[in-house]
Design goal:
Two copies of one chain form a homodimer. By secondary structure, chain A is of the alpha+beta class. Helix content of chain A is about 40%, strand content about 20%. The first copy, chain A, binds a DNA duplex through helix 2 and helix 4.
Chain lengths: ~150, ~150
DNA sequence: ACTAATAATAGTAATTATTACTAATTTTTA
DNA sequence: TAAAAATTAGTAATAATTACTATTATTAGT
């Protein structure tokens, strides 16, 4: 199954779930801990980073469990996946409205609060026939540290 | 080597290349054809899509050649790679300033011209210590077709 | 046009991130 | 406390991309 299909299925699921009951989810210790790790850092970690951290307290943790839970938590809207030009996925525990800056030199990802005066979704909707729900902005350039080094 | 390192190296290369001579690049027929294919479509294709097309005229084409050239063309700034939530990379032959809309249902990617009244880079720079070179906006929602089907 | 130098390619192997699978375990429910 | 069901560990499989090397194609200089 491709990710294109997954997006479709996820969308359908959300629509249906608002009508019927949510399937019962169990608060396993590991899931809780994985969520906390992502929430308590600003580095926008990968699955491997989370795995290495949580494994210190749960030595039998499996990497698959981390992946499964990160994806689950994304579907639940408790965290989000970032779209960056890195080989592995990065996650963000902050689901509030904000954007990101990526340094072209060191590759670090920073949060960036930015409120546009215009409503960009509405502006884009007027130019198209789409119904736009949300958007993300990714900024690129040099971070403070890397700027100084030049 | 991770992609983070690659970004670093690419950046260094560009800086240095402006001082010294560009290495000589040969205009092979296949590279030319790959570039044309990406330039002549609006579907934001994957390497596999390009491969299947170009192979019709060059039956001995190798998929590795397509990957190598797509990456090369990105580095040269002739095409760009999009950051989408799909398992495989998508490319865009249009390098002019524009943004993208991705339909949450069918997964199609559309170009979206949008000129903001504010200079978002400058606005973001004022809030941070970064020097911002460019940004990309990804919009999400339902496309025309998918909207009608509901 | 010919040749030397070297960039590009084909074909294959290797790598890496992620997902799939299933028996065993943990958590919840009643 | 026992039954039901979600979750996990451990492993295998998958899929996209990159790496490698002998061969081929392109360019530059004569």
């Amino acid at each position: 199954m491709t990710k294109a299909n997954k997006i479709f299925i996820y969308y359908k699921k959300v629509k249906n779930l608002s009508e019927m009951d949510l399937p019962s989810h169990r608060r396993s210790q590991k899931r809780q801990r994985i969520l906390e790790e992502v929430k308590n850092t600003k580095i926008h970690p990968t699955a491997m980073w989370v795995y290495q951290r949580v494994r210190k307290d749960f030595p039998r943790l499996s990497l698959g469990t981390v992946y499964r839970n990160l994806n689950f938590l994304c579907e639940q809207g408790l965290i989000q996946k970032l779209l960056l030009d890195f080989p592995s996925d990065h996650f963000d525990g902050d689901t509030s409205l904000h954007h990101h800056f990526i340094c072209k030199v060191c590759g670090k990802v920073f949060d960036l609060d930015l409120k546009t005066k215009e409503n960009l979704s509405k502006k884009a909707e007027k130019k198209t026939d789409f119904s736009i729900e949300n958007y993300r902005i990714y900024f690129y350039g040099l971070c403070d540290r890397c700027k100084k080094r030049r």
